[in-house]
Amino acid sequence: MRVARIIKTKEPLELQDIDIPNPAGAQVLVKVESAGVCHSDLHLWEGGYAGPQGVLMKVEDRGVKFPLTPGHEVAGTIAEMGPDVKGFSKGERVLVYPWIGEGSCPACRAGEENLCDAPKSLGVYQDGGYGEYALVPNHKYLVKLDDFDPSAAASLACSGLTAYTAVKKVAVKDGETLVIIGAGGLGLMAVQIGKAITKARIVIVDIDEKKLAEAKRLGADVIVNSGTGDPVQGVKDLTKGLGAEAVIDFVNNGKTAPNSFNMLRKRGKLVMVGLFGGSMEINLPLIPLRAFTITGAYTGKYSDLVDLVEIAKQGKLQSTVSRKFKLEDANKALEELKAGKIIGRAVINP
Ligand code: NAD
User: How far is the CA of 18 from the centre of ligand 1 (A)?
Assistant: First the structure.
């Protein structure tokens, strides 16, 4: 089978022909129909995240090993199954839950394998979906898609699930203001999920007019271009000078994070999601004086993915896929994402 692999960071992915894995036990071999191209694949490819003073926090220091087949947003059909697989059949269309844990840490025991102490996520710590087939370690990581479009489904496994987790975390009440920073793959899902599961006013902030226009089309109530104006003032103007009840920062870099903090109202909640990186200086007394809650969110749990697929099957989420690439064009897909040319999500259809 053909796979596109990162052999060495910052170098083009290599197209290789390798043996098709033979599933044993409860393993399932999925024929990949669609694999989402996430900005996190770019961070992997670049070798890490920008830490303070721009120093790279290397993914290899965090347990990632190369060569690696990236791709954690995988939808396809079951090609082969190990003898212990139950409840699935060959040819069935499935979405893969990629946030696999080692199974025994406190998070795994609580059903939050995405927060495992020793993660084994597909496309990060073991081979993922940039290939014709992907080997899933256990049938318990599959969600049935029935006839749901695999390209629209793929991005639910990360951009959808992460946005769902973050929107649930802020728990905004009816009429409150939820600001979403970054109208990329994740932010556009968050706009739609915010509309689907809350009655908050959704404000989206980005530096790219085309992405803001797409957010508006997908239901955002207010768009703010932070490239041409001050987003903190923009949000204050919308909220009688008080600030927003909740902000989800899908960029979370040295520029956006201070703004996200400063646009919160008293008792506000900030969820940091993006991995663009950098650092910020925080005015510490403001955290207790204004009783802010600042938290992070990392992907989501299996049961939430099942719920999210149900929401999508009910027609409440539009596909954010704007570009489809062949496997041999995986480098092009990553380059275009890096250059900011992808609106919403790109997928690879091997
Ligand atoms: P993307 O490239 O699709 O979108 C990024 C968006 O941010 C673009 O619309 C871009 O115009 C906008 N942007 C860039 N700089 C900005 C700025 N200064 N102000 C406002 N907007 C700005 O990326 P994505 O796939 O949506 O991922 C976003 C980030 O989230 C990445 O760092 C990714 O690795 C990370 N991520 C985190 C998790 C998690 O669980 N925490 C999961 C998936 C992705």
Answer: 32
